[in-house]
Design brief:
mainly alpha, Arc Repressor Mutant, subunit A, two-stranded antiparallel ribbon, 2 strands, 5% strand
């Protein structure tokens, strides 16, 4: 098993799971306890806790203590970092696509030459 160390890899690894993405979507609406986060899923509270540990390790959520409850909160800084990385690479590929499209237009606009004819 590969050990993931850099922060961006931790974020993308955490986001790779649909349950963790759903948990983050729920936390975007406000803080929630483990029980509240577990409600919509057909998995155990322990399974949800494991997902929360992955999200916490990636620093996408934080847990605080309020009396007996330990509510989870969304931490958007690392999501912003991942979003910025995606935006930069999207722009690189869009630029490459635009250059390819311009090149193909140039090729299509060039007069066709008869390769079999001699000058």
């Amino acid at each position: 098993m590969t050990v993931i160390e850099d922060e961006l890899s931790l974020v993308f690894a955490a986001l790779a799971d649909p349950t963790r993405r759903a948990i983050l979507e729920r936390l975007a609406r406000g803080d929630a306890t483990v029980n509240e986060l577990a409600e919509p899923f057909a998995i155990s509270q322990q399974a949800v806790s494991k997902h929360l540990k992955v999200l916490e390790h990636a620093r996408l959520i934080s847990r605080t203590r309020a009396a007996q409850a330990r509510p989870c909160a969304l931490e958007t800084v690392h999501l912003d970092t991942a979003s910025d990385w995606i935006a930069r690479h999207r722009q690189i590929w869009a630029d490459r696509h635009d250059r390819l499209a311009a090149h193909l237009s140039t090729l299509q606009a060039a007069p066709a030459t008869d390769e079999g004819a001699t000058p």
